[in-house]
Each structure stands twice: as structure tokens, then as C-alpha cells.
Amino acid sequence: MANMSTATQSATLGFASAPANAFKQTDPSKYISLGDFINNVNKPDNRAQLVKTFGNQGITGFLQLVGAVKTAGTADEVTWWEEQRLHPTATITLVTSVAASAQIQLSGTIGTTGTTSAFRLNDVVMWDNVNYSQRALVVSVSGSQVILQSLTTGTLLSGTSGTTYNLPIIGNLYGQGTDQPSQYLESNLIRRTNPYMIMKEIFKVTGSQATNIGWVDVGGGDYRWFIKGEADTRQRFIDKREMMMLLGQRNETAATGAFGSGTISGSEGYFTALENRGIVSNGYLNDLTDLDIILTALDRNGAGPEYAVYVDRLQDLAFDDFVAKGVATASLTAGVATQFGAFNNNPNMAIELGFKSFGRGGYTFHKHDWKLLNEPTLLGTTATTTASGVGFAGAMIPMATVVDPKTGNREFPLEINYKSTNGVSREMEHWLTGSFMGATNSTLDVLQFNYRSEIALCTRAANRHVLIKRAA
């Protein structure tokens, strides 16, 4: 006899071909109780709420929390200007060794590629590549040769062939009745550019799927599963857009295949900028000694007093450990000044945003957990006890404006640029193509959600930022 669960509706009226009203159970082992038999027609005890197994999985928000501003752009790349150091260093790479003497003749490559010599007659320079313990007067500059004369009765230290000597210029000396210098120094600028990158994404649903009701409440009492799929696609696109602004690399890659020939311009991301021009720690900061090395580097680069620190879990715990051993925290002790300028001088605002603050050597660091670096499917560790995975552990971002030397404008260290003009913005474009839910631009019974963004990140004064990398 046919089973109830497999019987089909008769195509004709009448009782001969209709489903049976009752049937025999051919296998007694399958019929133990009435509950077993009617299980097929019972309504499942369904829990409609969707369980967030991994919590909120969005990883965006870093750029906004550290003060990255958004600016419209109208060209294929962003251009900005950065000043050089005020005091140049005279540089020479010796081709022959020099013996110690009261007067030494240096022969070699002066300056670096694309620059001119900073040596001028009568300059006073520091000699000795290690301790800069001696002062010398430049008495001759001719082509690739420079002659130094000791300012004392002693001898100048020897020089080694193949070594590059960087000589700080501390001033000059002239005799009575002498003329003015015949040469002068001109300030220089560095022109930096970063191309825009174009990112795209889509999500599709058929008309039939769009009208299906499922078992799961995807939010607000809506049981249509495609709503969840579209929302996840949007979040993934936003996350990937931020990751490209962090991890992107500038290049010119030939495009082949369905999208035609030509080039695709990569865009320099934040981490790449810091690897190229920033302060890089090749390993976790595990104690005050490690932190103090970073402070020394910040001093050398004219850093501001306040930093946002975004780190992974292991670096976060390391900070907690050595902060507990003596670094001043936000619960201030007498005589300790901690900055909260980034939060309107309100420590409570920092706490509300999830920052923990501490001070060291005149700097204030606002520490925050960085979800991106803890997500195992992205940049996070693959185990809780090791630092395996992609080698980024965190970053220290200055919470101060940067002066553009060409325009005089004060700008934020990080700036998100997007193409926009005359009311057309490509920051986050979203449109529908299809034949339902308001879309009437296709005859296909499919609705396509389209996403597109054309953006670029500017990292100004990268030399004042710190990138913390996991040890190799």
C-alpha cells in the first residue's frame, strides 16, 4: 500500500484513484508508538531567531574611529605634499679609506641619487658615524672630494671605504671681513600620489525566491532568507573596501578575460604606506624597553603627544601586563598629565568608545582592540596560543592634524577620498537591476543588487605612524 507521505493527488475526481484512507504497516519495527507514526504531520518546534554564532562579524570602523575624514575627489589619483626635514645632513660614501689626521680628505659619492650635495665651504659638521664626537670645518668641496679640518688640535677619526657617512651640519664659521656664502640651501617638498581603486560586488535573487517564506527570522519579523543574503553581501563589500584601504598595494596590473584588456591601478593601503615610510616594529611590544624604543623613534620624527593604538589580542594583553607594572594609566596619579584631546578632553568619552588610555614619556596612548586582526578568516591568528597567521599585530595612529607645506592647510593624518562631482558620488553606489521590487530595467525574473565604490586612502606623514608586526 502507498505510504501517506508519498501519495500524490489524483488528477481526476472519484475515489478509485484518491489517496488511501488507511494502510497497513509492512514493517512492525517502524511502528512503535502513535507518536512515531504521526511524526510526519507534526509541526516542528522551530525556533525562528537566528543565532549569531560568531557575534557581530563586521570589521569596519577603524578608519572612522581614528578620525579619518572623507573628501571628494575629481581626478584619477590623489596628490598631496610633504615637507622635508628642516636641517639637511651632508652625506658621502667613501671609495677609499682615510687615515686619522687633523685634516682628512674624503673621496666618494656625495649626496644620494637625484639630490645635490649639502656640503658648503665653512660649514661645521659632526664627524664620527657612531657617536658624532668630533667637530670639523669644511675647508674644501670639489666634485666628489671634501676636505675636513679638525676644530681642535687633535686628529679626526679614520674613515672606512664603502661606508656611508651622514654628517649633521651644526652651523658655520667665517673670519672677520669675509664675504657672504656663495651658495644657499633651498627647501624641498615631496610630492606623493595615490590612484583611486574601483571595487564592485553583486547579489542576485529570483522572483520565486524573493517570495518564499523560510523558517528563520532574519530581522524585524521578516522570514525571507534573501534579505539576510543581501545584507551579508553589503557588509562583506564594506569590510573588503576597508581592508583594501588598509592592505592595498599600488601597481599597474594588466586586466584580461571578460573585463577586457588594459590596466588596473592598485592603490596604496595604510599598512603598505607604513611599511614603506613609517616606523615598523618587527615583533610584539612585550615590555617597557620595547615601548621606549618606539618612543625614541617618535621623538626623532616630531610626533604629536596623543596616539590611538589598535592591536590584536596578544599585543593587547602584552600592553595590559606592562602597563600594570608601572606605566601611568587614565586613573591619573599626581603630576601625571594624560591627553584626551581626541575625545574633547573627556576621558569618559574614550571609555564609552572602548579605549583604554595610558601615558609614557609625555605621550598618551588610547588602546583599542582591533577586530580585523583577531578574525581567523581574515588577519587573525589561527590559534589562541600562537601568533601564526598574517604578520600584522597593530598600529599606532597620531591623533593630530598635519600641516600641508604647500597649501598651509591642516589635514588629518588619514583621509578617505572618493570620486564625486556635480552631485554624483562614487563613495558607495547602490542600484537595482531586474523586473520586480521597483526595478523595471530588465525582463529577467531576477533582481540584482549592485555595489560599486571608487576610493583611495591618503596616509600623510607616515613617518609619524607605527606599524607593529608579528615576529617572523
What does this structure look like?
This protein has 472 residues and is of the alpha+beta class. It has 3 domains: 1-42, no CATH class; 50-83 and 192-472; 89-176, M1 Pyruvate Kinase, Domain 3. It is 15% helix and 31% strand. It contains 8 helices and 25 strands. It has helices at 34-37, 62-65, 207-210, 225-247, 270-277, 288-300, 313-323, 347-352, and strands at 69-73, 77-83, 89-94, 103-110, 123-127, 134-142, 145-150, 164-172, 189-195, 197-206, 252-254, 263-265, 279-282, 306-311, 328-329, 356-360, 363-369, 392-398, 402-403, 410-411, 414-421, 424-425, 429-433, 446-459, 466-469. The longest helix is centred in the middle third of the chain and has 23 residues, at 225-247. It is elongated. It starts with 33 loop residues before the first helix and ends with a strand. Residues 1-13, 331-337 and 383-389 have low confidence and may be disordered.
List the helices and strands and how they pair.
Blueprint: H1 34-37, H2 62-65, E1 69-73, E2 77-83, E3 89-94, E4 103-110, E5 123-127, E6 134-142, E7 145-150, E8 164-172, E9 189-195, E10 197-206, H3 207-210, H4 225-247, E11 252-254, E12 263-265, H5 270-277, E13 279-282, H6 288-300, E14 306-311, H7 313-323, E15 328-329, H8 347-352, E16 356-360, E17 363-369, E18 392-398, E19 402-403, E20 410-411, E21 414-421, E22 424-425, E23 429-433, E24 446-459, E25 466-469
Parallel strand pairs: 1-21, 13-25, 14-17
Antiparallel strand pairs: 2-9, 3-4, 3-8, 4-7, 5-6, 5-8, 6-7, 10-24, 11-12, 14-18, 15-16, 16-17, 18-25, 19-20, 21-22, 21-24, 23-24
